[in-house]
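step 3/5: co-fold with zinc ion
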Amino acid sequence: MSYTGPGFDPPQPRRSRRGPLTVALAALVPGALLGWAVYAAVGGSGGDEVSAGVSASASGTPTAGSSPSAGADDTKSPSAPAGSGALKGKVVVIDPGHNPGNFRHTADINRQVDIGTNRKECDTTGTATNDGYAEAEFTLDVAHRMRTLLERQGATVKLTQDADRPFGPCVDERARIGNEAKADAVVSIHADGSGTGNRGFHVILPGAVHSGAADTRAIVEPSGDLGERIAGDFVRVTGSAPSNYIGDGTGLVTREDLGGLNLSTVPKVFIECGNMRDSKDAALLTSGAWRQKAAQGISDGIVGFLRG
Ligand code: ZN
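step 4/5: write tokens
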């Protein structure tokens, strides 16, 4: 199974299984994606996200993406002044999806691990653009940019991996790292490997599972809040549209088959920042300036969640 994420089997529609939370989230989506609505209203084309992001802001404040230094790591967050320490005492775990070394350790990453609901591969190689820019490189780059932004606000930031191990960690360990850090928020960074023409980002929320070592019932609600904020801020800062191929245009998808979510005991979401296999999305994902906006949008969502 080439180029599928950590248990990233194509998600199955779950309409018949949607619970009250999903319905509640759907009702809140217009608010969460207000930035996107504003972006669309001010004349965004919906196609050229690289330039469109500069014009959209739900709050009327300039977005980080409008800064000439958007490509640098030192872009300030609009949510709090630099060095304000607003997140002092807060722990954020960033989980850069996959590992650049996974390609060389197929036997190790194919080992099955227990994710509570079932068993699944330890990890996967991740996808890549058609030109060979690996998802694992993308996820690390965005994670580093996020770490800079969040540490500036006083947060304690931990990465589950920093290309400092030959492969992995396995999905169960990725969850355990967030749990043992007693993280206030965990975000797993990814980019998708879907068909050409499929575009946009989506945030994956944990569904309620209670089986074996998996019990997400306590984190479903706060994770939904976290994911909704990230989706809204991602739209606002990057100008990217929610996925046109999953999530019914909301940018939010609930899944019950990901070990990294099922085994988490702290608020956690995944984000698929775009589709590496689509040439237009790939042009964004390979741009350092765009990755800075992505990191800013995700970080702003985390900050909003942690500050309440
Ligand atoms: Zn992935």
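step 5/5: annotate
The CA atoms of residues 160 and 177 lie 6 Å apart.
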